[in-house]
Write a structure and sequence with these properties.
By secondary structure, the chain is of the alpha+beta class. The protein contains 5 helices and 14 strands. It has 2 domains: 96 residues, SET domain (Beta-clip-like); 104 residues, no CATH class. The longest helix is centred in the middle third of the chain and has 13 residues. The two termini are 32 Å apart.
Length: 218
């Protein structure tokens, strides 16, 4: 499996950033977060998951904005381009609406049930905004050529992975995430016993103050 990931990673480019692989997970279940259903050895691949939706820094639709978060009374960096594409995906694929709405959010909107009208599903854009703000990740950019604009605060790559969103942040995680194109790979970094919560670090910085500031602003 690791050799396959190396081959996939070596073949990534701005023209081939979305990998046509199926998602995979074993020995895990979703509760209030992600838990192990069986023992997991050190270095074992726990899951790999294709993005629900992802945008890259070199793509024209990628737009990062500054928004005001009324829940925390803070200005936050927000992937507006990702949010727009997710709204369109939900409108086009009503079967995906409920699993998306089930992700963590403290903005009720239309709750978590699919609501249909003659014109199609009802999508509450502010609810989508809140879910994306609390569940999106910043994958590693696949842009490596100077022919493409460099990533900055206005066009940062961002994506949403449904299963990955259930794994909580920890300063002492038992797993580590890696983005390979549109795949999010989670591997154990120490043995995990059945029943343990599976956690990973949302920000890899070892400096507590830097880490806290990053999580509060993005």
């Amino acid at each position: 499996m690791s050799n396959d990931f190396r081959k996939i990673k070596a073949g990534l480019s701005v023209d081939r950033s979305r990998i046509g692989a199926a998602s995979f997970a074993r020995n895990v279940k979703i509760g209030v977060s992600l838990f192990a259903t069986g023992d997991i050895e050190f270095g074992e691949t726990i899951r790999y998951e294709k993005a629900f939706c992802v945008v890259w820094d070199h793509e024209d639709e990628t737009l990062t904005a500054i928004t005001y978060d009324g829940h925390s009374d803070r200005m936050r960096v927000f992937p507006a381009g990702l949010c727009k594409l997710i709204v369109q995906k939900l409108l086009d694929n009503p079967s995906q609406v409920e699993k998306f709405l089930d992700l963590y959010s403290d903005y009720l909107g239309i709750k978590t049930q699919l609501v249909m009208r003659d014109s199609g599903p009802i999508i509450h854009t502010f609810q989508v905004h809140d879910i994306v703000a609390r569940n999106a990740f910043g994958p590693v950019s696949v842009s490596s050529s100077r022919d493409y604009r460099e990533e900055d605060d206005s066009n940062a790559s961002s994506g949403l992975w449904i299963l990955a969103s259930y794994s909580n942040d920890s300063c002492i995680p038992n797993a580590k995430k890696e983005s390979i194109g549109n795949l999010m790979v989670l591997r154990s970094i120490r043995p995990i016993v059945a029943g343990d919560e599976i956690t990973h670090s949302y920000d890899a910085s070892s400096d507590y103050d830097v880490r806290t500031a990053s999580l509060m602003n993005t």
